[in-house]
Amino acid sequence: MKPTLPAKLLHALAPWRNAPAWHIAFSGGLDSTVLLHLLANSESIPPLSAVHVHHGLQAAADAWPSHCQSICDHLGVPLRIMRVQVQAGASLEGAAREARYQAFTEVMGAGAVMLTAQHREDQAETLLFRLLRGAGVRGLTAMPVHRPLAGGHLVRPLLHVSRGELEAYAMAHQLQWIADPSNTDTQFSRNYLRHRVFPRLTERWPQAVSRLARSAEHLNEAQGLLDELARIDLQAADQPSPFPWLPLPSLALACLRELSDARQRNALRHWLSPLTRLPDSDHWVGWQSLRDARHDAQPLWRLADGQLHRCGERIWWLPSSWSEFSDTAVSWPDAQHPLSLPGNGLLRIVGKAPAGPFEVRYRQGGETLDVPGRGRRDLKRLLNESGVPGFVRGRLPLLYQGERLLGVPTLAGLRVAPSEGWQLHWVPQTCDQGLS
């Protein structure tokens, strides 16, 4: 006996039955209306609420919040209506989706679940759409059943349910839903596939939708194996940095070089995916140029959300926000207390601080520094000796008293004489403060 739609849904949601809250992304359309009705009539589930995102992209949408409110009131489900601004861009669909998911993150609590109502036909459309765009294995996994979202989980419990099943349920329970007029506009790629392509496919191959959805499952399994291989390869490359005070993701290059080109790309995709949008296959030549540059070069590879730098035999990820700091001099009248540097972390003196006042400046070139036992030395040469990555040198806070460079942060080979009784320590801005 085939399981009923309520039984299918609760089986799919079993792993999240102990979540502190379930939120439904409620557009008011057929799919989310069925999902809301199913859960509102379920027992022993976490506290349930709905979220309606109003994009303001068409006049008809102004009536949708009141419709959604009426449905939720009837079912006894709290509703939060969120109005968003959709940024203009090349893809209106993509911009609306980004605004919608940003709104979802605002309602999520730790461990909470956001439920969306995509079904099997949506999955098949996603796979074909991405295939036509030349996506790789990761893209062809289409929509995952679940993924992390803002400290909780985004879950799609209806991916194995057909649109026909949802329609039958809605008709049997006399549900009312919104028919979005934009869903028939074939200038949008997904609508074109839905209304022009899939009818022809299913006319010739009636099982096309279910088979495409099954292919997405196979590709998802293949991607899981690639991720497992990437984690194995990254274990060797994830060696401790020689600069533990520098809170940036980095990898040892030598270990990556031992891999085939395909395994290098696989490992880097896995490592970079939480950090930036990944490039298409045509742009991976940037990785080869960075990897194969001369040992004394300091090449970089520009990506969507930051840069990958190579310094010696190590690669470093620098998010776009790394360059967002002020290199203006900052006065430090009382060195007994730590100094917060705009966009550049915290500076403090460990030990008995010398009498101030001081000023913190950044490198201009030509600086010299007294080094115990070595006399006065050029700062650039000292930094070269200690191997400090080039991209961090412009951010090093330099302690001045008048026009005299009194100290730089404690680095290998750049320590104040023990007789001085103090050391300058710099805690750079961490990834949690916006570097990720």
From TrEMBL:
Principal subcellular localization: cytoplasm
Q: Identify the stretch annotated as signal peptide in this record.
A: none
Indicate yes or no for the key word Iron-sulfur.
Answer: no
The Lysidine-tRNA(Ile) synthetase C-terminal domain, residue ranges: 358-426
Keywords assigned by UniProt?
ATP-binding, Cytoplasm, Ligase, Nucleotide-binding, tRNA processing
**Where do the TM regions start and end?**
none
Q: Which reaction does it catalyse?
A: cytidine(34) in tRNA(Ile2) + L-lysine + ATP = lysidine(34) in tRNA(Ile2) + AMP + diphosphate + H(+)
Instruction: Give the enzyme class.
Output: ligase
Does this UniProt record's set of keywords contain ATP-binding?
yes
Look up the coiled coil feature and give its residue ranges: none
Please state which protein family the record places this protein in. Answer: Belongs to the tRNA(Ile)-lysidine synthase family.
Instruction: Please state what the annotation says regarding this protein's domains.
Output: The N-terminal region contains the highly conserved SGGXDS motif, predicted to be a P-loop motif involved in ATP binding.
Specify the protein name.
tRNA(Ile)-lysidine synthase
Q: Which lineage do the record's taxonomy fields give for this organism?
A: Bacteria, Pseudomonadati, Pseudomonadota, Gammaproteobacteria, Pseudomonadales
